[in-house]
Amino acid sequence: MHYILDAVLNSFLIIGCLLSNPCTGKAQQDNNEPVNIIFDTDMGSDCDDVGALALLHAYADMNKARIIGCVYSSGKVPYGAAVVEAINIYYGRSDIPVGAYYGDDVGDPVDKMNAEKLGKDKTRFGNTIVFNRDAEELTRLTRRLLASQEDNSVTYVTVGHTKGLYDLLVSEPDSFSSLGGKALVKQKVKRWVAMGASGADNEKGRYGKDWNFSMNGTAPYTKHLLEHFSKPMVFVTCGTDVLTGKSLKAKPADNIVRAAYEEWLGNFNGKTLDDQRSSWDLIAVYYAVEGLGDYLVSAGNGHIEFDIEKGCRWVKTKTKTNQTLILQKPGTNKGFSDYLNRMIALPPKSR
């Protein structure tokens, strides 16, 4: 019965979003085709990765995005790929390829979201992947996916560390493409959208370390990407005070998104869905699909100056570079939170 009620709710919520300004920002490709996205995550260290993938599926249900693949590029918690697959299954897209990094040298060593517990509950969530090594090797998958796409058509979104994209960039030719990683990326990728460089734009021009770009062994890979990635780079830095999670309270028990938020909030922080969580990763997905919309603004011309030890800072320039820093418009916390909460609570179109 709840599937019927969800379907009715889904229709009303989608209509509401289409009629409201927040959904009418610069969206999709120039020809209004869905945005082709590879989603790269460190699923497990925080629940906003889960919210980000849920949001991406909601956009796919609206035909605003096409998820061509998901990769888990943080290896110290070996269950992230399982949660990714479980989310894809919940939204009726079990056919989305899932890849994972097989090493254990990068990433948060603490399973804050109980990804092991969630990933091993195959009866509840229907996933076949449990350990990262059950998924396709990350670089093999990203090369395979890119080789089959049209030129300049893929938005590569990272809401975690930068190891996966680095490995792609330095990869060697293989059976999927005669191009090396740098040439393959230049040919197939349209832009890189990253949740990263938080705090880089500050009045005193100070360096700062953020989780995705500088912590848990990822800094050298970030530096290499900033120096060698030739296509447009967009760094989304906001989301601390944009809270999401409370809209999941009415979701059914088999909703992996609700379960993951509850695990992270309750078991790691002693909180509930009413306390909610910051929405950094969701906002990166929002930008990748909607553009600036009603909530975001560009910091203007500039580029990231990155130091492995000190972190990064945004340096303003007179001329445009291939880098863009995204900030949040003042006074938009509640409106943005309400919009994202509505979106991640939308029932899957397939149910």
SSE layout:
Blueprint: H1 2-19, E1 35-41, H2 48-61, E2 65-72, H3 80-90, E3 98-100, H4 115-120, H5 122-125, E4 136-137, H6 138-147, E5 154-158, H7 163-169, H8 181-188, E6 189-195, H9 211-214, H10 219-228, E7 233-236, E8 243-244, H11 256-269, E9 277-278, H12 280-290, E10 296-298, E11 302-307, E12 311-316, E13 323-328, H13 333-344
Parallel strand pairs: 1-2, 1-5, 2-3, 3-4, 5-6, 6-7, 7-13
Antiparallel strand pairs: 8-9, 10-13, 11-12
Query: Could you tell me how far the N terminus lies from the C terminus, measured between alpha carbons in angstroms?
Result: 11 Å
Strand percentage: 15-25%
- H/E element sequence: HEHEHEHHEHEHHEHHEEHEHEEEEH
- C-alpha geometry: globular
Describe this structure in words.
Strands 4-3-2-1-5-6-7-13-10 form a nine-stranded mixed β-sheet, sandwiched between helices. It is built from 13 helices and 13 strands. The longest helix has 18 residues, at 2-19. β1, α2 and β2 form a beta-alpha-beta unit. It has 351 residues and is α/β, with parallel strands linked by helices. The model is unreliable at 1-25 (pLDDT under 50). It is 37% helix and 17% strand. α2 (48-61) packs parallel to α12 (280-290), α6 packs across α7 (163-169) and α7 crosses α10. The chain is globular, with a radius of gyration of 19 Å. The protein has one domain (2-344): Alpha-Beta Complex (Inosine-uridine Nucleoside N-ribohydrolase, Chain A), CATH 3.90.245.10.
